[in-house]
Write a structure and sequence with these properties.
Blueprint: H1 4-17, E1 26-30, H2 38-50, E2 55-59, H3 67-70, H4 79-83, E3 94-95, E4 100-103, H5 120-130, E5 136-140, H6 147-155, E6 158-163, H7 167-182, E7 188-196, H8 199-217, E8 223-228, H9 231-238, H10 243-246, H11 251-273
Parallel strand pairs: 1-5, 1-6, 2-4, 2-5, 6-7, 7-8
Antiparallel strand pairs: 3-4
Helix pairs in contact: 1-11, 2-11, 7-8
This protein binds adenosine-5'-triphosphate and magnesium ion (MG).
């Protein structure tokens, strides 16, 4: 039996033997409904991945970005500097740790979605130039399903759709999947169920979503993992610290470590099989 580390080494060896050059690297956290945990999860999953890999997190919430507040960082430059034509994307990188880099978003510049120089295409052209430096690039996106968000999701290798057990959040997750399909999204999708009261509630939530998606959209869903509703999450946010640093032995932290292993495996398998 391979352990996680051996599996990754083996997958990397297989990959180096193949002549595949289209890496699965960009992961967008999306939901439709606000407040499902996209920012909290992208930060903590990114941190977990950065313990073994090089990770870049880009806050692409155009309106109320708050990734930097969650980790108590005051960015010198933000993605606004890119959208307003002042800087290249690579000039906006903050090195939070040697392995975990950020491009922070901006708050209070609600107009920059409209009045700007850099388009989503230009953004992704610049992301492509940065790709060789990173193993994983995570996008924290805002809620809703506007053109801006859809254009980002369409260009991401993997969409991680975050929902909670609330029926409204499940419905919005379904709508996001439908919209992605309607926009000819050709990448992969994975589901995260956050704020579950227990495993059973998480499984039921996934089954409900899965049933609707298989019935109406004729598609099979991949469950990436579940995270319990945990008071240590709120405590970490109030402390403006990552949960994995603040309460690494909490239930939610253990689930996030497991999910980051899953993401790693998912990416490597996808790269090798080109699925
Ligand atoms: N597993 C959890 N347990 C308890 N509380 C949680 C959990 N996940 C998220 N939360 C709470 O939900 C709130 C919203 O989380 P977060 O800001 O990450 O959501 P979001 O999807 O990024 O929201 P938005 O759509 O506004 O960007 C957090 O402030 C946190 O208090
Ligand atoms: Mg958010």
């Amino acid at each position: 039996m391979f352990g996680q580390a051996e599996r990754v080494i083996e997958l990397k060896r297989l990959k180096s033997e193949s002549d595949i050059n289209s890496d699965v690297k960009t992961f967008a956290f999306t939901s439709g409904k606000g407040g499902t945990g996209k920012t909290f999860l992208s930060l903590n999953i990114g941190y977990a991945l950065s313990l073994h890999f090089k990770v870049l997190i880009i806050d692409l919430d155009p309106n109320l970005s708050n990734a930097n507040i969650m980790i108590n960082e005051i960015p010198k430059k933000t993605i606004y500097n890119f959208y307003s034509g002042q800087n290249l994307l690579e000039e906006l990188i903050t090195e939070y740790t040697p392995n975990l880099h950020f491009i922070f978003g901006d708050s209070g510049k609600l107009e920059y979605g409209k009045k700007r120089y850099g388009s989503t295409d230009q953004l992704f052209n610049q992301i492509k130039k940065l790709q060789h430096k990173y193993d994983f690039i995570l996008f924290d996106t805002g809620s809703g399903a506007g053109d801006e968000i859809i254009s980002i999701l369409k260009k991401s290798d993997v969409n991680i759709i975050v929902t909670s057990p609330e029926p409204t959040a499940v419905m919005d997750a379904y709508v996001m999947i439908k919209l992605l399909n309607g926009n000819n999204y050709s990448g992969k999708k994975a589901i995260l169920i956050n704020k579950c009261s227990d495993e059973e509630e998480g499984q039921t939530t996934f089954k409900n979503l899965e049933l609707a998606v298989s019935h109406f959209l004729n598609e099979k869903l991949f469950l990436l993992g579940m995270i319990n509703s945990d008071k240590s999450v709120t405590q970490s946010i109030i402390a403006q610290n990552l949960l994995l640093k603040n309460s690494p032995s909490s239930n939610a932290a253990k689930q996030i470590f497991k999910i980051s292993d899953q993401i790693n495996e998912f990416a490597h398998v996808a790269n090798i099989l080109q699925i």
